[in-house]
Amino acid sequence: MWTHPAGSRSGRDTRAWPLLLLLVIAILIPTVCVVWLLQDAARSQQAVARQMLSEAHRSQIALFRQALDAWWDKRLAAIDEMTVRSLPSAVFASIVRDGLADSALIHDTARRLSYPAPQSPPGPDAAADNAPWNRARALEDTDAAGAAAAYAKLGSDPILGARALQGQVRSLLRLGRREVAVGIVLEQFAGKRHDRAADLQGRLIAADLELLALRLIGNPEDARFQKLTARLIGRMDDYDNPAMSAPQRRFLASELRAVGVKDAPALDDAERVAARWVEQGPDTRLIVLRSPSGRVDLLLRRATVIRQIGEFAKSQRFPQGVQAAAQLRDSAAPGPILTETPAGPRFPDLRLVLWSAEADPAAALAERRTLAYFWTGLLVIALTAALALLVARAIQRQIRLARLKTDLVATVSHELKTPVASVCLLVDTLLDDARPDPAKTREYLELIARENARLSRMIDNFLTFSRMERDRKKFDFREVRPEAIVRAAVDAIGERFAAPQGCPVEVDIEPALPVIFADESGLVTTLTNLLDNAWKYSGDEKRITVRAYRERACVCFAVEDNGIGIPARETQKIFRRFYQVDQRLARERGGCGLGLSIVDFIVRAHGGSVKVASQVGRGSTFTVALPVAVQGVGA
Ligand code: ADP
Fold first, then answer.
1. In a domain, 392, yes or no
2. Ligand 1 pocket by Cβ (under 6 Å)
3. Residue 592 C-alpha to ligand 1 middle, in angstroms?
4. Does some domain include residue 386?
5. Distance between Cα 570 and ligand 1 center (Å)
6. Which of 13, 98, 272, 322 could form a disulfide with 318 if both were Cys (CB 3.0 to 4.6 A apart)?
7. CATH number at residue 511
């Protein structure tokens, strides 16, 4: 008995596994390679990221140092310019007030210290030849009241007047008239008149008298005390007044503290730092920055420099997470240090550091890069898989076609052999008989005609199948009346049903069926195949009915027989090509296992469906449902 060359009766392709294996290998090998590459890349990425970042940081800190140097150059040049326009004391005040330094030493062009300068030695007395003045001075030791009166008459000149007021106050105190003396200081020095009047020691008279008055009042709660304190501190803060010397400022500040004044003048600290430097020599705890002309030495505490550099760093642009700072050589960094450099000759014991606000920027960068690699790898794997699938599908199709070709050739030659052999035998028998009996001749010719019909049906099916498998089957979609299809199929199959053991086919067409958009010859082939099967797989008492009716949006064609039926588990398989439930029976009845696969193909091309309802021993009903308004989808 001939077995189907496809290898399995079920039509399933058992030889697909080598292809599957190939496919798996084609995907697996690149995937493994990509994964390995990814892992390797991730490892080296960290090292590369570290290297790259450290190079970047080195150049950033070099740039930062350059910018810092330029910033200081600019500041010092600007300070130099200030010395040309302003008084040394004003330059001192503006440096400290602007936060450029904790203190400063201002020199003249010959590099002599001009602020804070030591107290100038007493100058010649301009009033030495002034007779009223000398009279008042002489009276002071013998007649305080007379002296006070004499001094009171001297008050017209701003400088001599101030000295006279000083003498008057002195004389009044001798007389014990404290309140009058305080009143004179309060009133006479309220305006600007005596603002610049200095005594022979170069001290501002107004300031000295105000301090004296404060001592006389003695009570910080007294309104006059507060008024005088404010006025005196105002004088000390007025650095545009050259009459107030640095030593006097310091003296006044310490005296103010002694009389219970809590608010120190704004620049008191700067004054003391500068004085200490001048009196005790350089202080190694301070950093000195000299202006280009050499006229100004800025005195800075290290903490001030560190703060200033920190503020400057804030104005610089660093990559995210990176910050710059200045630190003492041995101090701890605020975070993980990325790179560092000496702060330069200006700040020998400071270093500049770049530090990271992130825990480990190299790891963060590597992670970002690894993630990018991961997605690229995933994309490559997905593309490889898609490509491999496409290639596999193409190869599979080629293999299937090649196998079908072989199967078809084998089936065709096998199936054609039997009818051709019986036709040959019948013809030979007729030819051998010199005088053939007419009845026998007729019988033989009818047999030959039946074999011929079977042959031509088979060949039709083979051709349709072959075209279908090569995707060459063309459908010609037109509007067709369902009843025309039924009639054509019944006519085509008529000859077989007219055979001696044949049966009349019952036709039941619902009136007024809608036209369908279909390929007429395709549908006739469908119905013919179903009718042919109904005939083949029924016993001697055949009852075959073909119906056409409408069901919802479909026109249905049903072919019902009272034949052997199909077991439930086989009803899906019978639509596979070359599948036969009972090969021996099918072969006996002239089947080749292609009829239903052709039916299925044509119906699908029409956007319809075919189903079977069957009971073993009772019969089967094959129903084809086609949508009414469908535009054919077949090629
Ligand atoms: P064949 O040419 O062998 O009939 P088909 O594709 O037309 O091939 O049918 C596949 C198989 O389905 C048949 O071999 C048969 O076993 C079963 N079959 C088809 N139609 C019927 C039917 N009307 N009654 C019983 N079995 C059927």
1. no
2. 529, 533-534, 536-537, 561, 563-566, 574, 579-582, 586, 591-597, 620
3. 9
4. no
5. 10
6. 322
7. 3.30.565.10
State the residue range of the domain holding 237: 95-289
In 3D space, the residue among 260, 279, 262, 123 whose CA is nearest the CA of residue 201 turns out to be: 123
Asked if residues 103 and 266 have their Cβ atoms less than 8 Å apart, the reply is no
Q: Which atom of ligand 1 is nearest to the CA of 461?
A: 2
DSSP 75-107: HHHHHHHHHHHS-HHHHHHHHHHTTS-SEEEEE
> In this structure, are strands 544-551 and 505-509 parallel, antiparallel, or unpaired?
parallel
Distance between CA atoms of 338 and 350, rounded to whole angstroms? 17
Average pLDDT, integer, range 402-423: 76
Nearest CA to ligand 1 atom 8: 593
Instruction: Tell which one of 411, 457, 533, 620 to mutate to probe ligand 1, the residue whose CB is within 8 A of the most ligand atoms.
Output: 533
Write down which residue in 254, 289, 324 finishes a domain.
289
Exposure class string for 512-528: b at 16+ Cβ within 10 A, else e: ebeebbbbbebbbbbbb
36 vs 627: CA distance, rounded Å: 55
Closest ligand 1 atom number to CA of residue 575:
6
* Choice between 550 and 589, residue whose per-residue pLDDT is larger: 550
Place of tokens 């009915």: 545
Cα–Cα–Cα angle for 554, 559, 561, nearest 5°? Answer: 150
Question: What atom of ligand 1 comes closest to residue 592's alpha carbon?
Answer: 2
97's tokens: 């007030």
Instruction: Give the position of tokens 């550099």.
Output: 309
CA of 622 to the centre of ligand 1 (A): 11
**Beta-carbon contacts of residue 572 (< 8 Å; ≥ 6 apart):** none
Rounded to the nearest angstrom, the distance between the alpha carbon of 408 and the centre of ligand 1 is 18
- pLDDT tens track for 498-518: 555 556 789 999 999 999 999
Q: Which residues contact 401 (CB under 8 A, 6 or more apart)?
A: 469, 470
324: nearest Cα among 64, 75, 56: 64
Q: Model confidence over 227-271: pLDDT tens digits?
A: 999 999 999 999 998 888 899 999 999 999 998 888 888 899 999
The helix/strand/coil state of 561 is: coil
Provide the token pair at 96: 């400290």
Q: Within a 10 A sphere around the Cβ of 163, how many other Cβ atoms?
A: 25
| Residue 494 to residue 503: CA distance in whole angstroms | 10
Number of domains forming the structure of the chain: 2
Query: How does DSSP classify residue 554?
Result: E
Q: What is the atom index within ligand 1 of the atom nearest the CA of 596?
A: 6
Query: From the alpha carbon of 591, which atom of ligand 1 is closest?
Result: 2
Spacing, Cα 587 to ligand 1 middle (Å):
10
In 3-state terms, what secondary structure has residue 360? coil
Burial class (CB in 10 A: 0-12, 13-18, 19+), 358: middle
Pocket test for ligand 1, best of 596, 611, 616, 624 (most atoms within 8 A of CB): 596
Q: Which two tokens stand for residue 366?
A: 């590597």
Give residue 560's pLDDT band: very low, low, confident or very high (50, 70, 90). very high
From 269, 289, 309, give the residue that closes a domain: 289
372, part of any domain: no
Nearest CA to ligand 1 atom 19: 533
- CATH number of the domain where residue 177 is located: 1.25.40
Which residue has a Cα nearest atom 11 of ligand 1?
580
